[in-house]
Amino acid sequence: MKPAPIPADDAERVADLHALNILDTEREERFDRITELAADVFDVKMCFVNLVDAKRQWFKSTCGLAGVDETSRELGFCAHAIFEPDVMIVRDATKDSRFSDNPFVTGDFGLRFYAGTVLHGPAGKPIGTLCLVDSVPKEFAARQANQLKKFGALVQAELLRKS
User: What would the DSSP string read from start to end of 81-122?
Assistant: First the structure.
């Protein structure tokens, strides 16, 4: 497992996230509608609005995963995705050296497919992702990546409206 690198400006990135005052707030229908629709459109088991704090990934919305509010940043796929210039696509996590021995891949969760698009905070720093997850490998075309970015833009607009 290769944890995502921590950039030199991570304190500024985390401050941008905290400026939203959204961490550890209740779930909201406006985010849940987007994750439910995205999971349906992309035919995946799970979809999350995931915000990457200094040491954890916190879920503002989850579709297809109950009872989990956060995970360690060190284990998270989204901690990698926030630094990708485009949609990060992992078609089969068992074949990706960054994730093949990750407990989410090797354990009961059985994560195989991941696609995530970055969300930005008020100052433009990467603060999280809208991500799709499944327990089976999947192909993901350029058209689908563009659609995921559009769903991400909806989430980002809601996040910024909150600030």
Answer: HTT-SS-EEES-GGG-TTTTT-HHHHSTT---EEEEEEEE-T
Q: List, for residues 80-91, the tens digit of each pLDDT value.
A: 999 998 999 999
Phi and psi at 89, nearest 5°, equal: -120, 125
Residue 163 pLDDT more than 80? no
Using the 8-state DSSP alphabet, how is residue 151 labeled? H
Tokens of residue 31, six digits: 């985010």
Rounded-to-integer distance, Cα 116 and Cα 76, Å: 12
Closest listed residue to residue 63, CA positions, set 78, 45, 41: 45
Its pTM stands at: 0.95
Domain 10-162 fold:
Beta-Lactamase (3.30.450)
Cα angle value 89/73/139 (rounded, 5°): 15
